[in-house]
Amino acid sequence: SQQGEEDPQALSIQEGENATMNCSYKTSINNLQWYRQNSGRGLVHLILIRSNEREKHSGRLRVTLDTSKKSSSLLITASRAADTASYFCAVGGGGADGLTFGKGTHLIIQP
Amino acid sequence: DTAVSQTPKYLVTQMGNDKSIKCEQNLGHDTMYWYKQDSKKFLKIMFSYNNKELIINETVPNRFSPKSPDKAHLNLHINSLELGDSAVYFCASSQTGNSEAFFGQGTRLTVV
Q1: Which of A7, A33, A49, B14 has its Cα between 20 and 30 A from that of B98?
Q2: Integer distance in angstroms from the first to the last C-alpha of chain A?
């Protein structure tokens, strides 16, 4: 299975702090993606990092990828209450069979 | 305009019934998917479909079947519903199997 596994399963921090979530996967990948899911809603794509990239930024988001360790991290800087959500990593293997998602990290930002 | 829309949002039905969930995307994507999210929020892909091939997750019971009348639609039919089918079902689409996926808002299916 190429399934991504996020760590930690849950994270609670104060508003303004940085939040870091990690993802590990098992096999070769074409890219790794991070998604956010607010309660009761669908998933929203945040950022995609290709297998030949090591770091990528988007606003307050920073994603790293270490293919030798088969791991990725998502850093959210200067967290806000609106960042409260579940965050999932997903890996694509190169075929037409879509993405394989991890179990997610539930992030709570305390005001 | 909603990129990926699915209906209904909520579906409560009795065991043994047959039901369908509809999905439409207006993004011009070639590939559509159905995912199941269980009570622990674990997302599992059920089907991947484009105009060339249907890829079925081997763990999906054959009571579940996707139907695609055209490239913009991928409906999910479920026969003989069971209690364990209760979950949130998400439709999604992407340009290719590896690109960014766009998700619908989900259909919460409750089998009683």
Answers
A1: A7
A2: 38
> How many angstroms separate the CA atoms of A47 and B100, rounded?
8
The position carrying tokens 């307050």 is A60
* Chain position carrying tokens 């089998």: B111
Name the token pair of A111.
């005001």
Whether omega before B8 lies within 30 degrees of 0, making that bond cis, reads yes
User: How far is the alpha carbon of B82 from chain A, nearest alpha carbon, in Å?
Assistant: 23
The predicted structure's pLDDT at residue B13: 97
Strands B43-50, B19-25: pairing kind: unpaired
Closest-CA residue of chain B to A42: B105
pLDDT at position A92: 77
A45 token code pair: 């794509």
On whether the CB atoms of residues B14 and B85 are closer than 8 A, the answer is no
Condensed to tens digits (0 to 9), the pLDDT of residues B42-52 reads 999 998 888 76
Q: Are strands A105-110 and A10-14 parallel, antiparallel or unpaired?
A: parallel
Residues of B in Cβ contact (< 8 Å) with A101: 35, 42-45
pLDDT of residue A95: 61
Q: How far is B7 from chain A (nearest CA, A)?
A: 13
